[in-house]
Specification:
Largest sheet: 3 strands, antiparallel
Number of strands: 12
Radius of gyration: 41 Å
Distance between the termini: 83 Å
Number of helices: 7
Number of domains: 3
CATH class of the largest domain: Mainly Beta
Shape: rod-shaped
Helix content: 25-40%
CATH topology of the largest domain: Immunoglobulin-like
Mean pLDDT: 80
Low-confidence stretches: 46-78
Strand order of the largest sheet: 5-6-11
CATH superfamily of the largest domain: Lipoprotein YajI-like
């Protein structure tokens, strides 16, 4: 048997060891409902004070309501100054993950939904990144290409870039290599999207026609017998 005091209202009452063990040492005041650790407020009795202490305790017991020990008392109360931190931190972490996912997939998202471009550009401001069309070299094919020599000099090349995806992709650059009869490189030239006068993207499941003429130095023209074309992103 022990006597403890409520730190909130100073009410004194008796507590039993079995009750303390059942509630992990926590009790709830029957007068003010304050929850506290009983052993921190045990009365330090001396022989001279025993009578007065127990007399005070006896008076206080009359005001104690049933349910002094309850399941609520078995849980240590959370410090109110810390209780808000973890929910706030979890929300902040979730927002950071969402922002990272949007920035990482920005090219694909704007291809799927062009209306998101302005929003994604705003998310990119802290990183100074750009929102562009997806660059997918395996999604663009060269179709129906032809290469011929112009009667007035130079060469003419025409082909089609085919987008096989169900969303727009960035228009690739073109590398043209002119070869001799032994398939050795004679001339190699790279053409940008601007050089080819094409749009910056190819619509889903559509193609872009490419055709242009270019000159080759007269000393090399007689050696040219074929060509190779390669599309890529810089």
């Amino acid at each position: 048997m022990h006597i403890t005091h409520c730190p909130n209202c100073q009410t004194a009452f008796k507590v039993r060891e079995e009750h303390l063990r059942a509630a992990n040492g926590w009790v709830r005041c029957g007068k003010c409902q304050n929850v506290f650790e009983a052993h921190l407020y045990f009365a330090h009795k001396t022989d001279a004070m025993d009578a007065a202490t127990f007399s005070q305790a006896g008076d206080a017991i009359e005001g104690v309501r049933p349910g002094l020990f309850s399941s609520e008392a078995t849980q240590k109360p959370m410090n109110s100054s810390v209780g808000w931190f973890w929910p706030f931190f979890s929300i902040l972490l979730a927002c950071a993950i969402l922002w990272q996912a949007l920035v990482w997939n920005r090219h694909w998202l704007v291809a799927e939904e062009p209306a998101l471009r302005k929003t994604l550009e705003t998310f990119c401001l802290p990183l100074a990144c750009k929102v562009e069309w997806p660059q997918e070299p395996n999604s663009v094919l060269i179709e129906n290409s032809s290469f011929s020599e112009n009667p007035g000099g130079g060469f003419h090349l025409q082909m089609r870039f085919k987008n096989i995806q169900r969303y727009p992709v960035a228009t690739p650059w073109l590398e043209v290599t002119l070869t001799d009869v032994q398939d050795q490189v004679v001339v190699r030239r790279v053409f940008s999207v601007q050089d080819l006068d094409l749009q910056d993207h190819i619509v889903a499941l559509r193609d872009q026609r490419v055709q242009f003429s270019f000159e080759v130095d007269a000393s090399l023209r007689e050696r040219i017998a074929g060509y190779r074309a390669l599309i890529f992103y810089p």
